[in-house]
TrEMBL record, chain A:
Highest taxon, organism lineage: Bacteria
Species for this entry: Geodermatophilus africanus
Pfam family, any one: DUF485
Protein name, entry field: Uncharacterized membrane protein, DUF485 family
Keywords: Membrane, Transmembrane, Transmembrane helix
UniProtKB/TrEMBL annotation, chain B:
Provenance organism: Geodermatophilus africanus
Domain of life: Bacteria
Subcellular location(s) of the protein: Cell membrane
Gene Ontology biological-process annotations: plasma membrane acetate transport
Gene Ontology cellular component list: plasma membrane
Membrane topology: Multi-pass membrane protein
Taxon lineage: Bacteria, Bacillati, Actinomycetota, Actinomycetes, Geodermatophilales
Signal peptide annotation: none
Name used for this protein in its record: Cation/acetate symporter
Family recorded in the similarity comment: Belongs to the sodium:solute symporter (SSF) (TC 2.A.21) family.
Keywords assigned: Cell membrane, Membrane, Symport, Transmembrane, Transmembrane helix, Transport
Keyword Transmembrane (UniProt): yes
Primary localization class, coarse: membrane
Length: 133, 552
C-alpha cells in the first residue's frame, strides 16, 4: 500500500536515513525502555493476582477490615495500578517521546533526511546537517 | 460460565414488555436519525471504513467502551458476581488490564501504520498476498464467532426482557436485530456505527451509575455493609456460597483452576488482537488521539466494572441467587432483576433497552470490521492484486456486509435454538485473537527479523490449534451431565470424543503461537526487507506518512 499523495513522497532511503539518525535511536530507546519493562511489570502483577486467587483462596479470604478481605483489596489494587500506569504512560509520552517524534515528523515532511546527492551517499554529510539538537 | 443461554423456555417475564419495547424503540429511532445524518458525509473509502479519520479521541474512547462492553460484560459479569461473588469480579479484571497491552504496545503504532485493517500492518514488510490472506482469515473467524455470540445473545435476552417466547418469535427477533444492524452499517458506515456506539456507551454507563448509587444508598454508602448484605442473603439460598472468597466458580478442581488461568491469559492477550477493537484506532486523526481514546476507554471501562461490582453484589444481596437462577435468562437476569427491584418497571425498561441496544451496536461494529477485511484484504489486494478503485472496493464491502449479516442471522438462529453456550463463543473469539493475531502484531512491530514464514506459522498455527483444541474439549462433547437439568453442557449430547480437558485453549495456543512465529522466522531463508523495515519503524514511531483525516 502506498502512503497518500503528499507534496513529494518520502523515498525508502530517507526512511533508512531517518531510522539510522541518532534522534530516532533515542526515540526508540525511550519508547521501549518504558513500554517493555512496564508491560512485564503489569503482566507479572496480574498473573500473580490470578494465581493467588486460584491457588491461595484462603490467603485471599483473610479479612482486612469489615467485610473487605485481601482478595477484594488486591483486586481493587489491579484497577488502581491500571489507572496509575495509564497516567504515567501518558505523562512519559507527552514529555519524553512526543517532542522527538513531532520534530522528526516535521523534518521528514520537509525532506531533511534526503541526501543532497540522492541515493547511496556515504555517511558524513549528515553530521553537519542532521545532528542532534 | 458467564452468559449461559437460558436453560428452560421462559414462562414469565419481568416488568412490562410494552415499556421495555418502547424505550428500545426510542433508542432505535434516535440512532437511525443520527445514522442518516451521518451518511451525508460518507463519500470515500476512508469515510466508510474509518469515519473519515476525524472522530475525536474522547468520542472514540466512548465508542471503544461501547464496542467492548458487550452484553456479556454488562449482564454476564454482574450476574456472575451476584451468584458466585468474588470469581465474577476476578473475570472483569482480566478484561480491564488487557487494555494496558493495547495502550503501551499496540494502539498508537497501529494507528500510524494501518489504513483500514490489521493486515495493512502485518503484510507491510512481508510477501503481501499470503500474509494478507492469513490475517483476513483470522479476522473473519474471530468476527464471526463474536457475531454469533451477540446474535444468539440477542435472542436469549429478549426472552427475558421483551416477553418474546417460542422459537419462531426468537428467530424473528434475531432477524430484526440483523436487519437493523445492516441499516446502521450500510447507511452510516463507520461514522454512523461510531455514533451508535457513543450513544449506547453513554446510556449504559449512566444506567449503571444510577443503579450503583441506588444500591450503595440502601447500605448507607458503605461498601463493607453491602458485602455483608450479600453474605447474609447468600447464606439463606439453596446453595450457600462464600461470595467474598475466590473459588466459587472456578475453584472446584485442579482442571477448573487451570481452565481459569487459561481464560485469564486469553482475556489479557486477546483484547489488543480483536479486529473490531483495532479498527477503532483508525478512526482518529493522529496517534495522539489514539492514545487519548485508549485512556478514555480505560477509565470508562474500569469505572464501569467497578459499578458492576456493586450491581453484582447488590443483586446478590437484594434479589438473591435463587430468584436470579430461576428467572428466564438465569445468570444474565441479575442486573435486570435488580433494576426492577430498585426502580420498578421504568428502570427495568431503561436497562432492558440499553442491554438490547448494546447488542445492536456491537453487532454493527463487528460487521463493518469483517466486511472491511474481506473487501480491502481479500478482494482488493489478493483477488484484484491492488488494481481496483476505492469506490468499487467500498461497494464490495457493502455487499460483504449484507452477506456477513445474513450469515450471522442464520447461524445466530441455529446457535440460539441449539442452546449454544454464548460465553464459550466469546471466550473462543478472545482465545483466537490472542493466539492468531497478537503474537504476529507484536513481532511485526518490535522484531525486525520477523519474516513471512514466521507470520504465517504464527497466524495459522494459533488459529488451527485454537479451533482444534476447542473441538476436542468438553465444550463440544463429553462434559459430565448436570444433575439439575439432566443434560450435558456440551454442544453435542451423548457422545464423547474429547481429550483436551480445558474449555479455553489459551494456555496452550498462545505460547505455541509465539513459539511458531519465532521458529518459522528462524527456519526461513527469507532476508528481511531492510528498507521496508525502516519505513515501518519510522512511520510507527513518528507518524510520518500516516493516513490523514478527511476534510469535509
Amino acid at each position: 500500500m502506498t502512503p497518500p499523495a503528499e507534496r513529494r513522497l518520502l523515498t525508502p532511503e530517507e526512511y533508512r536515513e531517518a531510522q539510522a539518525s541518532p534522534e530516532f535511536v533515542e526515540l526508540k530507546r525511550r519508547f521501549r525502555r518504558f513500554a517493555f519493562p512496564m508491560t512485564v511489570a503489569f503482566l507479572t502483577w496480574y498473573l500473580l493476582y490470578v494465581l493467588l486467587s486460584t491457588y491461595a483462596p484462603d490467603l485471599m479470604a483473610t479479612p482486612v477490615f469489615g467485610n473487605i478481605n485481601l482478595g477484594i483489596l488486591l483486586g481493587l489494587g489491579q484497577f488502581v495500578s491500571t489507572f496509575v500506569i495509564t497516567h504515567v504512560y501518558v505523562a512519559h509520552a507527552n514529555k519524553r517521546t512526543d517532542p522527538i517524534s513531532d520534530e522528526m515528523r516535521e523534518r521528514l515532511e520537509h525532506h531533511e533526511y534526503a541526501r543532497p546527492g540522492g541515493v547511496g551517499v556515504t555517511r558524513g554529510a549528515d553530521e553537519t546537517r542532521g545532528g542532534r539538537q | 460460565m458467564l452468559y449461559a443461554a437460558p436453560a428452560a423456555p421462559a414462562t414469565t417475564t419481568v416488568g412490562n414488555p410494552a415499556v421495555n419495547i418502547s424505550i428500545f424503540g426510542i433508542f432505535v429511532l434516535i440512532t437511525l436519525a443520527i445514522t442518516f445524518r451521518a451518511s451525508r458525509n460518507n463519500k470515500s473509502a476512508a469515510d466508510y471504513y474509518a469515519a473519515g479519520r476525524n472522530i475525536s479521541g474522547t468520542q472514540n474512547g466512548l465508542a471503544i467502551a461501547g464496542d467492548y462492553l458487550s452484553a456479556a460484560s454488562f449482564l454476564g459479569i454482574a450476574g456472575a458476581i451476584a451468584i458466585y461473588g468474588y470469581d465474577g469480579f476476578l473475570y472483569s479484571i482480566g478484561f480491564l488490564v488487557a487494555w494496558l497491552v493495547a495502550l503501551l504496545l499496540v494502539a498508537e503504532l497501529m494507528r500510524n501504520t494501518a489504513r483500514y485493517t490489521m493486515a495493512d500492518v502485518l503484510a507491510f514488510r512481508m510477501r503481501q498476498r499470503p500474509v494478507r490472506t492469513a490475517a483476513a482469515t483470522s479476522t473473519l473467524v474471530v468476527s464471526l464467532f463474536y457475531l454469533l455470540a451477540q446474535m444468539a445473545g440477542a435472542g436469549a435476552l429478549v426472552t427475558l426482557l421483551l416477553g418474546v417466547t417460542g422459537e419462531l418469535a426468537q428467530a424473528v427477533v434475531v432477524v430484526l436485530v440483523g436487519a437493523l444492524m445492516m441499516v446502521y452499517v450500510l447507511v452510516g458506515g463507520m461514522r454512523g456505527t461510531t455514533y451508535v456506539q457513543i450513544i449506547k456507551a453513554t446510556l449504559l454507563i449512566a444506567g449503571a451509575a444510577v443503579m450503583t448509587v441506588w444500591v450503595l444508598g440502601k447500605y448507607g454508602f458503605n461498601f463493607s455493609a453491602l458485602l455483608g448484605g450479600a453474605v447474609d442473603t447468600s447464606a439463606t439460598q439453596a446453595t450457600p456460597r462464600d461470595v467474598l472468597s475466590p473459588g466459587g466458580q472456578y475453584g472446584a478442581t485442579s482442571i477448573s483452576k487451570l481452565d481459569f488461568i487459561s481464560l485469564a491469559l486469553a482475556l489479557v492477550f486477546g483484547t489488543a488482537g480483536l479486529p473490531h477493537v483495532l479498527m477503532r484506532f483508525y478512526t482518529v486523526p493522529t496517534a495522539k488521539d489514539a492514545r487519548r481514546s485508549v485512556v478514555w476507554a480505560i477509565w470508562l471501562i474500569g469505572v464501569f466494572y467497578l459499578f458492576s461490582l456493586v450491581i453484582g453484589y447488590g443483586a446478590g444481596a437484594l434479589v438473591g441467587a435463587d430468584t436470579i437462577l430461576a428467572a428466564p435468562g438465569a445468570v444474565n437476569a441479575a442486573a435486570p432483576l435488580l433494576a426492577f427491584e430498585l426502580g420498578g418497571t421504568i428502570l427495568l425498561g431503561v436497562i432492558a433497552g440499553v442491554a438490547f441496544a448494546t447488542i445492536l451496536a456491537v453487532v454493527a461494529g463487528l460487521t463493518i470490521t469483517a466486511s472491511a477485511s474481506f473487501a480491502h484484504d481479500i478482494y482488493a489486494s489478493v483477488i484484484k492484486k491492488g488494481q481496483v478503485n476505492p469506490n468499487a472496493e467500498v461497494k464490495v464491502a457493502r455487499i460483504a456486509a449484507i452477506v456477513i449479516g445474513a450469515i450471522s442471522i442464520g447461524l445466530g438462529i441455529l446457535a440460539l435454538q441449539a442452546g449454544l453456550n454464548i460465553a464459550f463463543l466469546v471466550a473462543l473469539a478472545f482465545a483466537i485473537a490472542a493466539s492468531a493475531n497478537l503474537p504476529t502484531i507484536i513481532y511485526t512491530l518490535f522484531w525486525q527479523r520477523f519474516t513471512t514464514q514466521g507470520a504465517l506459522w504464527s497466524i495459522y498455527g494459533g488459529l488451527i490449534t485454537c479451533v482444534t483444541l476447542i473441538l476436542f474439549s468438553p465444550v463440544v462433547s463429553g462434559a459430565p451431565v448436570n444433575p439439575a437439568t439432566g443434560k450435558s453442557p456440551s454442544l453435542i449430547q451423548d457422545v464423547d470424543f474429547s481429550w483436551f480437558p480445558l474449555n479455553n485453549p489459551g494456555l496452550v495456543s498462545i505460547p505455541l503461537s509465539f513459539f511458531l512465529g519465532w521458529l518459522g522466522t528462524k527456519l526461513s531463508k527469507e532476508q528481511p526487507d531492510e528498507l521496508k523495515n525502516a519505513e515501518l519503524e519510522v512511520r510507527a514511531l513518528t507518524g510520518i506518512g500516516a493516513e490523514k483525516a478527511v476534510a469535509h
